[in-house]
Design a protein that fits this description.
This protein is about 40% helix and about 20% strand. The chain is an alpha/beta fold and about 350 residues long. The protein folds into two domains: about 5-125 and about 305-325, Nucleotidyltransferase, domain 5 (2-Layer Sandwich); about 135-300, Nucleotidyltransferase, domain 5 (2-Layer Sandwich). The strands form two sheets. It has a five-stranded mixed beta sheet, sandwiched between helices. A hairpin with a 4-residue loop joins β6 (about 135-140) and β7 (about 145-155). The chain starts with 6 loop residues before the first strand and ends in a 17-residue tail after the last helix. Bound molecules: 5'-O-[(R)-(carboxyoxy)(hydroxy)phosphoryl]adenosine (KG4) and zinc ion. Zinc ion binds near residues 276, 277 and 309.
Amino acid sequence: MASENIYILGIESSCDDTAASVICNGHVLSNVIANQKIHEEYGGVVPELASRAHQQNIVPVVDQALKKAQITKEDIHAIAFTRGPGLMGSLLVGTSFAKSLAFGLNIPLIEVNHMQAHILAHFINEESYSKPPFPFLAMTISGGHTQIVKVSDYFDMEVIGETIDDAVGEAYDKSGKILGLGYPAGPEIDKRAQLGNPKAFKFTKPKIEGLNFSFSGLKTAILYFIQNETKNNPNFIEENINDICASIQYTIIGILIDKLKLAAKQTSIKHIAIGGGVSANSGIRQALKNGEQKFGWTTYVPKFEYTTDNAAMIAIVGYLKYLNKDFSKSEVTASARLKI
Ligand code: KG4
Ligand code: ZN
């Protein structure tokens, strides 16, 4: 007997991307994202503008996700939405939309933790991408978070290290601001880093014990370095931009890999996955590949479109919870500081 096709609609609205995706039995049928350009002119996400843009985008984005998947809303088995963590005003738009649609269609509603979703994105069915076996270590590196998580099962996760101040994506974005680059600066620093000399300038790594991270000192070191150099040469940034980006990227990746090495040693786990916006970075991808040779790791890097915020990762968690019949009550509310 052929098994039934289970369609899950995922909705993501935790920060500045409004996204919707339909997956069928773990395969992505559509993955639609509306980026909010409005924040570029402010050099960072403005929460009030983000929630207003979500309100404008959510209906067309969901509509497009259904059309691209070639299904109607009556075909959906359940609706998964990001409950948190994230910006409260942004989360509320996705949460209330998901609740009303599930109520209207009389189908289950499934809450999803955004940080779990960055990790479980590895379980989206994709040809030529293998899924990590349990237990594995996941390093989630994004604009809001930097964590190392021991993943013993889909929903058995333990945070074993995290940033005590800025997230790694913030380190990229704030460095970019100092250098006069646009927002978010991560992708541009990455592009320029590939053209520069990573050892041109040296920035000291923070000395934080154990598996926690700190990035705020690096940002300050970069600021003082640039202030100092531009005093002598006002064109310093323009003349050295690729080398500066390469040196920043080299330092950041060094910090991430050092902690991963320690985590792998402490837990004796050699299956290592990354997730979150910064896992799109070419340098960290290469460093992980090198780790396979150097440290005997098996590494898992998500497909590019499932690294930055997206709704396919929300839908896959929805599917895994659907199989467990792990549904949310209709009273569920958004939670800005939701923990793994
Ligand atoms: O996961 P994400 O889309 O949103 C959050 O949940 O924060 O991550 C966004 C972050 C931004 O800080 C952005 O600069 C960074 O990911 N990012 C990158 C790259 N692509 C995105 N950082 C470094 N290199 C990249 N290629
Ligand atoms: Zn994210």
